[in-house]
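Title: Comparing notes on inverse folding

I've been comparing how different people in this forum approach sequence design from structure. To keep things fair, I'm posting one structure and asking everyone to reply with a full sequence. Here's the target:
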């Protein structure tokens, strides 16, 4: 593997992220003029219908219950930027305590999940998926609750879309993002998967 964990974490700490053009192409570092954030304050929102689903306790939450399955679920689409090489890099980062899968389960079936990297008090969301309707949405709400409980300062979604905007996602420019990122990664914070 030509990418090494310290160098990867350094790249993310500077606001870059790894992507491939497709499943078999080489990885490259990318950045963006606009960065999407999920708010960790009262700007975070979600529909009343989703609140009802959460209150019904249809899903249970696990962290790293099946990390590889979450990565595979995130990569399973017509065109994917999560190449085979990147899947292995995520697994290495997980084993080293940097990458996490935040999962919802319905019984013994993986319903959905969010893949991300935690550096200091910053959580960098890489991708999300679902097998069961509402699975990834419930994961998003519960992940925000978890990040709040662990005193995270930044939830970076990298790029926004209409789905994330329904949760209050917003974009900021690179200068402001860098300021927020550097403050967040300088703080000691643990994702703490054992509290779920």
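Reply #1:
Here's my take.
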């Amino acid at each position: 593997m030509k990418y090494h964990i310290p160098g990867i974490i350094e790249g993310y700490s500077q606001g870059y992220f790894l992507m491939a053009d497709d499943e078999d192409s080489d990885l490259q570092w990318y950045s963006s003029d606009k960065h999407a954030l999920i708010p960790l304050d009262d700007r975070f929102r979600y529909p009343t219908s989703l609140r009802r689903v959460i209150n019904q306790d249809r899903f249970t939450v696990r962290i790293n219950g099946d990390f590889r399955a979450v990565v595979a679920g995130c990569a399973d689409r017509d065109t994917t930027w999560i190449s085979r090489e990147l899947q292995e890099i995520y697994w290495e980062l997980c084993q080293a305590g940097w990458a996490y899968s935040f999962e919802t389960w319905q019984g013994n079936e993986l319903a959905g999940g969010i893949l991300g990297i935690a550096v200091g008090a910053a959580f960098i969301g890489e991708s999300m998926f679902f097998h069961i309707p509402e699975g990834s949405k419930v994961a998003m709400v519960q992940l925000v609750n978890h990040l709040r409980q662990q005193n995270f300062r930044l939830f970076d979604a990298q790029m926004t879309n209409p789905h994330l905007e329904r949760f209050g996602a917003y974009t900021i420019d690179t200068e402001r993002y860098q300021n927020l990122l550097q403050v967040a990664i300088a703080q000691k914070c643990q994702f703490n998967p054992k509290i779920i």
